[in-house]
Every structure is written in structure tokens, then in C-alpha cells.
Amino acid sequence: MSEEHEGRSVRLGDRVPDLAGLQLLLAVARLGSLGGAARELGISQPAASGRIRSMERRLGLALVDRSPRGSRLTDSGALVTDWARRIVEAAEAFDAGAEALRGRRDSRLRVAASLTVAEYLLPGWLIALRRGRPDTAVSLQAGNSTMVAERLLAHEADLGFVEGPAVPPGLGAAVVAQDRLVVVVGAGHPWAKRRRPVPAAELATTGLILREEGSGTRQVLDAALAPHGGLAPPLLELASTTAVKAAVVSGAGPSVLSELAVGEELAAHRLVKVPVEGVRLRRDLRAVWPTGHRPTGPARDLLSLTRRPPGPGGAAQSSGPREA
């Protein structure tokens, strides 16, 4: 853009009255009274008089003749009012279009979440969101953390939740909760009666029943056992937490799962939690979004709802989302 064009743009902004002033002028023309126009627009009469005088100074024109019988437009004021009407109508069309775009954005929310978050935390958050936004249609894609990142980067989701040890590349994030992973076995497994904790090195060399590569649980376990030689080849590799739990309950072998996911089975003694030592099995649960595009509209509202404490058996929440 040329300097001359930029200069005209700046001077135009300095010389053309703002929309509030133009709306006041239109009201005076319609009602024939400055006081009536002020009441209609919800401002005081002195403020209305000041606004008219400001417009007159800016334009260098007398716009309104005031008398005890009321206010009438000057010839220049009548002409300016005709121009003002077009500007205000254009502004109203602009506002209506922007509102329509906001409405289209706010009418839907696409969420992608890792399975643990989707099953154990997200339902409560979505119920709370519906109370505040009953007309927002929510769709949920549940999978592993890698899938969540792919959906966000492809603009196929508005907000995501992951449970891996790090923020996926290209995404901004806020920690919304913490979760603990636990070693579990079926009631008949030899470890169920074990009195001493399982050392990290032994856990690393034991074939486990695991989720598929790309799952947040698998990523956390890989990172935690890396100093101890890494994970042994899986005994079984399954695509869902439910399938993993069923295999462990049947006695097929041990697994490492979210404490959120096994609360019911532990309470019913279908699974037994085995203590471990020498390894930290905790992880952050994060909300994620494309870098530079912090959530807006219903996605922003859902993110704010993660600040609420969980119900019984939930993960220990942070005091609020914090940047990761």
C-alpha cells in the first residue's frame, strides 16, 4: 500500500464521525428532538448535545438547529443524514454477517480425545457444557493421542485432549489434570500375592499386555522404562483399554493402565494393583489445539470447564488449565 493511500486512510478515520454519532443524527432526524433521540439511545441529553457538537467540529458543518420547539436538521445536516443512513445500514449488514459467522462457529464443537479422557473425564465436562450451550452440537472422535494430533492439524477437530508424556509438535497445550498409571494383574496371577514391589528393571523385562503404539499410556510407559532398558516385546497388543482389561482379568498377563480406568475392577477384586519401585508412572492430561489458534467459542468454554474438580474416583485436577 502506498504512503499516499495510507495517509488518506488515516485522515478518513480522523474526519468521518463514528457510528454512534451517525446513529444519533439519524434519530434526531426521525424524532425531531435531540432529547428524544438521547432517550432512545440511552444517553443523557448533555451527552447527545456534546456528540452533535463534536460531529459538527469534525465535519466543519452545522448539522442541527436547536430551538425551544425542538431540533431540526440544517440543509447540510439533511444531506449528511442521507449519507449517514447508508453507512449505518452497511454497518448493520456487516454486524449481521459477523453474527451469522459466529453463530455457525458456535453451533458445533468437534472434540478429539484420547480414550482415557474420552471415557472417564470428558462426559462430565460435556454435560456441564450443554447446560451453558444447549444449542451447540458436539461431535467426539476417540482414539489414541497420535490420532488426536492428526485431527487437530488437519483442522478436523476444534479441541483435543491427549495423555502422552509431551505436547505433540505443532500444538499448543494446557495441563487439565494429572493421572497415575498402575501395574495390574488378574487375581490368579503370581504377582497378585507378591509382597515386595516389582523393581523397574523387572517390569521392563516382563512381557506386558499393552495398548497399541501411539497411545498415551504406551508413550508414558516407554519413556518411564527407557532408563531401565525399555519395554520388552508386548505379550499382547490391543487397541482398546477395555480389551486390555479383559485380557488381564482372564489371567493372560500383567498390564499398566490408567488408575482412572481400573477403579471398578480393583474395587470388585477382579484386578489386583501391584506396587512398583524405581519408576515414576504419572502423567499430565492436556487439552491441545493448533499452535497460534487458542480455543474460542464453545471450545474455549469447554476448556474452562476442565478447571472444575472431578467427581468421585476422578483424576486429581489442577487448579486450572496451565500452559504446557
Secondary structure elements and pairings:
Blueprint: H1 3-15, H2 19-31, H3 34-41, H4 45-59, E1 64-67, E2 70-73, H5 75-106, E3 108-114, H6 115-120, H7 122-132, E4 137-143, H8 145-153, E5 159-162, E6 171-186, E7 198-199, H9 200-205, E8 209-211, H10 216-225, E9 236-238, H11 241-249, E10 255-258, H12 259-267, E11 271-274, E12 276-277, E13 282-290, H13 297-305, E14 316-323
Parallel strand pairs: 3-4, 3-5, 7-12, 8-9
Antiparallel strand pairs: 1-2, 5-13, 6-10, 6-11, 6-13, 6-14
Helix pairs in contact: 2-3, 2-5, 3-4, 7-13
Structure description:
This protein has helices at residues 3-15, 19-31, 34-41, 45-59, 75-106, 115-120, 122-132, 145-153, 200-205, 216-225, 241-249, 259-267, 297-305, and strands at 64-67, 70-73, 108-114, 137-143, 159-162, 171-186, 198-199, 209-211, 236-238, 255-258, 271-274, 276-277, 282-290, 316-323. α10 links the parallel β8 (209-211) and β9. With 324 residues, it is of the alpha/beta class. The chain starts with a helix and ends with a strand. It contains 13 helices and 14 strands. It folds into 2 domains: 3-104, Orthogonal Bundle (Arc Repressor Mutant, subunit A); 107-324, D-Maltodextrin-Binding Protein, domain 2, CATH 3.40.190.290. Helix content is 46%, strand content 24%.
Number of strand elements: 14
The second-level CATH architecture of the largest domain is 3-Layer(aba) Sandwich
Helix fraction?
Answer: 40-55%
- Percentage of β-strand residues: 15-25%
Gap from first CA to last CA: 40 Å
Element string (H = helix, E = strand): HHHHEEHEHHEHEEEHEHEHEHEEEHE
Overall shape: rod-shaped
Tell me about the biggest sheet?
Answer: 8 strands, mixed
CATH topology name of the largest domain? D-Maltodextrin-Binding Protein, domain 2
How many distinct helices? 13
The CATH class of the largest domain is: Alpha Beta
Rg, Cα atoms, Å: 32 Å
Overall pLDDT metric = 85
Unreliable residue stretches? 1-9, 310-319
Number of domains: 2
Query: Which structural class do you get from the secondary structure elements?
Result: alpha/beta
Organism: Streptomyces triticagri
Domain HTH lysR-type: 17-74
Protein name: LysR family transcriptional regulator
Keywords: DNA-binding, Transcription, Transcription regulation
